[in-house]
Amino acid sequence: MIPDEKILPNWAVIACDQFTSQPEYWRNVAEIAGENPSAYNLIIPESELENANDSDIAKKISRVNSQMRNYVESGIFHTYENCYIYVERTLLNGEIRRGIVGVIDLEDYDYRPGKFPRIRATEKTVSERIPVRKKIRENALLELSHVILLCDDPEKNLIEPVTLVKNNLRRIYDFDLMLNGGNIRAWLLDGKFAESFDARMQNYIAGKNAKSLTFAVGDGNHSLAAAKACYLENPKISRYATVELENIHDDALKFEPIHRIVKNIQPEKFLENMRSKICDESSGLCLKYYYANESGILRLKKNLGASVLSVLQNFLDEELSRENNFEIDYIHDLDALRTLSHEDGNLGFEMPEFAKSGFFDAIEESGTLPRKTFSMGHAQEKRYYLEARAIREACD
Q: Which residues contact 389 (CB under 8 A, 6 or more apart)?
């Protein structure tokens, strides 16, 4: 289900888990959406969930569910059945990222350690983050997705061939995304072209070992985990979930580090604690930090983890378990991290670059990575909510 093309510039909004420390971004989204039909009215940005109580969350969910029904009844959607959507996202640097929008069977997905389904999480899933997402989905009429699923196709035999035939497909939209999101355009992939893609998909799957990692969840794992939880609890809610499939070997798909910022602390005291517990001046594991007008480098003990990120995240998690009164936020943009680090009581940590080469092999070998290890592109390059799909077999 996709709204009419003339609606889309105000309709499509970025993934709800972006810009959590920049409420001004979401204020801008609200202003752009205005009174127009917009996916903004069908989601709840995570920045609005942080300090909300159960009553506030329930009201937000009720408003979203009501608006979903209003949009469906008002007839703003065009419905496309038995098809895929081929998408080209032109990023601000001019590169084009390609994907296929379709659905996956949640029976083929699991995020729990020790499970070996074809579709797996790449990062540790935080169970505490699932319940609120489950509440948002469990009575929803529609699904809007920001999930990106990755395939490991170095020969580029699965998605890329669609590029060669796109002029034979029906173009269904072409517009600029709000707030520096770049351009997005799409074509309907149906009939013989969908059948050809299905055949290539079967060949791709057949080339993988039954217990190998066939598809990796690159973005939106907690939303996918909530979708599965809803399906297992209530089979009337769809066992399928919308995703965009992308090739990890797409040159336009960049992996960016996700930085950390610790709030409500005394930075000097916090750094002193880190130096006493996890630092070794002879180590080559270097972690850059920022606070106020200061910056510096900590050298982390190698015996505490395989990477800078794992050592830092383990330390932060352990300190939080001691009921220390501080908050951690995850920042996708380095300039934003530096700006936020200037605020009183904030301490920012810059994560090193994350390489995507050998990514699937690393997951196979060591299991899921620490949560918020990487981001696929800058914050503005994340997937926007655009397509909607009915997820309930029966609606009250």
A: 1, 103, 142, 143, 145, 238, 242
The burial of 311, by beta-carbon neighbours within 10 Å (0-12 exposed, 13-18 middle, 19 or more buried), is given as buried
What 3-state class would DSSP assign to 105? Answer: strand
pLDDT in tens, 190-231: 999 999 999 999 999 999 887 788 999 989 989 999 999 999
Helices 267-278 and 308-321 pack at an angle, to 10 degrees, of 110
Q: What is the DSSP string of 232-258?
A: HH-TTB-SEEEEEEEETT-TT--EEE-
Cα distance between residue 242 and residue 104, in whole Å: 7
Q: Which is nearest to 93 in space by CA: 200, 183, 171?
A: 183
Residue carrying the six token digits 């943009």: 333
The β-bridge partners of 302 are: none
What are the pLDDT digits (tens) for 306-365? 789 989 999 999 998 887 789 999 998 899 999 999 999 999 999 998 777 778 877 777
Alpha helices in 234-348 (DSSP H): 267-278, 308-321, 334-341
The closest alpha carbon to 366, from 301, 281, 306, belongs to 306
CA–CA dist 13, 250 (Å, integer): 24
Residue for token digits 């002029």?
Answer: 167
Cα separation, 89 vs 379, in Å, equals 14
Question: Using an 8 Å Cβ cutoff, are 109 and 117 in contact?
Answer: yes
Amino acid at site 274: M
> What are the distances in angstroms from CA 227 to CA 112, 206, 234, 316, 391?
14, 27, 11, 29, 10
CA 283 centroid distance within chain? 33
pTM summary value: 0.83
**Are 173 and 8 within 8 A, CB to CB?**
yes
Structure tokens at 118: 């074809």
CA gap 10, 302 in Å, rounded: 49
Number of H helices, E strands in the chain: 11, 22
